[in-house]
Known about the structure:
By secondary structure, this protein is an alpha/beta fold. It folds into two domains: 1-66 and 224-248 and 305-475, no CATH class; 67-223 and 249-304, Alpha-Beta Complex (Spore Coat Polysaccharide Biosynthesis Protein SpsA, Chain A), CATH 3.90.550.10. It is 49% helix and 10% strand. The protein contains 14 helices and seven strands. The chain has helices spanning 5-27, 39-66, 109-117, 139-147, 165-174, 195-206, 224-245, 261-266, 277-287, 308-333, 340-370, 377-396, 409-419, 422-435; strands at 96-102, 126-133, 153-158, 181-185, 210-217, 257-260, 292-302. Strands 3-2-1-4-6-5-7 form a seven-stranded mixed beta sheet, sandwiched between helices. Strand 2, helix 4 and strand 3 form a beta-alpha-beta unit. Helix 2 crosses helix 7 (224-245), helix 10 (308-333) crosses helix 14 and helix 11 crosses helix 12. The longest helix is centred in the last third of the chain and has 31 residues, at 340-370.
Amino acid sequence: MTAGGSVNDRRRSKAAVFLFCCAAAGIGPHWLGPGRSLIPAATLALLLGGYSLRAVVLALTRGPETAGVSGPEDGADVVATDAIAPPADAGAPSAVDVVVAARDEQAVIGRLVERIAGLDYPQERLLLWVIDDGSEDRTPEVLADLQTRHPQLRVLRRSRDAGGGKSGALNLVLQQLEGRWMFVLDADADLQVDVLERLLPWAEAGGWSAVQLRKAVANAEVNLLTRAQAMEMAFDALIQEGRLATGGVTELRGNGQLLRREAVLACGGFNEATVTDDLDLSFRLLLGQEPIGVLWDPPVKEEAVLTLPALWRQRQRWAEGGLQRFLDYAPGLLSDRLSARRRVDLIAFFLLQYVMPVLTAADLLGVLLTRTPPTMWPFSIVALGLSGLTIVQGCRRPSEGPPLPAMTPLTVALGIVYLMHWFVVIPWVTLRMALLPKRLVWAKTQHLGAEEEAPPPLGLEVDPDAELAAEGGQA
């Protein structure tokens, strides 16, 4: 798949159809009689709320030790633990290539290289590849100095206008790797020294083609916004485990993803026509019958964004890439290439993640047009209530890494109110994708490193320079 105009034109048309259908479904109930207008939302709340609650309960029942394990008893179309052949030299640890795409990362890249060099893993089985993606700061000089001290460090460079974003950088190095596994990290990643010693045997024994580590926020105590993002990460990890436990679909999250190299090659590598390489690869692996596992501990730590403008740009990119993959791969996702359970899971979470926010926006438009009461509130309230429950359970769960926020009524309220930003981001991104011409522009989150000063406590100041360029992948 290329980043050509035809791909974006097709996405624009599909997004327009999606927007029209959601608008009709959100406004339509306002013309039903009293009592009947709430039936669609109440039905969705009952079905999807029950499905989501089952996923959360199963994740909690299994616990962190077994939550990433799925098998025939779950009805999941995953391979058995012996379906993927072990490495030829089964007596030795698997060879691992740690891969980092870096652009203007002078604040954190040195710290990451030192952390990788300090991992408890046989150094002869470990290589670190850094793709300098056209850095204009001191990143090249920092990497050159690090190479003199760390022989396992390999540096590739490409021009800033090479195209393809992070996917292009990963594709450049993919053809040069020889290890069985590639471990993709962001430049601000922080790892426990025993992460590979624990992760690789678990992945091999489980027969996984990919494994996603739980993402934990390293700077959760900076302000309310970073604290809310820490809760969101725990929420997401618990949902991921629950979906896997029900025989559903799990997804990669970019940072802290372990990939079996041959599985990625079999899927055609990384898609250079998307702004979220991890979400897109998740569906490529899914359609290629390559199973993805999730692991609660050990986590991978990363920096949360510090300001609302930075969050807005980041979440636009996530929302756009997330919706793009459904538009791109819908025929395969609805085909018999996937089990019935996985199709149901995809439909359920597509409705929750993308349809519900747009329906809610359309419902508000219907209120203005017809001067009748809202009709989607049962659906939205159940979804937000379940989100609060999941936040509480996720943050109370035993975990390694940075302490998760303590659960109090005010903290839970913060988490729920914070998640409501998706009710703005998703409709806006859908409207923009449907109406505006698209030119793919890849951008990165700015990583500050520990030496940078934190912003004021609330983190609500407008700081247009806190992120680089168009973080949302916009033109």
